[in-house]
Amino acid sequence: MKTLTAIIFKEEDMYIAKCPEVGTVSQGITIEEAVKNLKEATELYLEEFPLAEEGKPLITVF
Q: Per residue in 29-60, pLDDT tens?
């Protein structure tokens, strides 16, 4: 399995998790649940739409 990135932030009482490489989004009551749900959503997405081999994106903050 390829290593992907999860960006997590809190919105009201839920954690939102996004995968920037694929564009999938999920949520959960805890960070762990949000990441677990994102992993599942991303795996299902990639079964239908496999990623092309590309370099890893550069992620920074400003």
A: 999 999 999 999 999 999 999 987 766 667 77
Fold of 1-62: Double Stranded RNA Binding Domain (3.30.160)
Q: What does the DSSP assignment read for the chain? A: ------EEEEETTEEEEE-TTT--EEEESSHHHHHHHHHHHHHHHHHHSPPP--PPPP----
Is there a contact between 17 and 23 (Cβ–Cβ < 8 Å)? no
More confident of the two residues 17 and 2? 17
Sign of CA dihedral 54, 2, 28, 57: negative
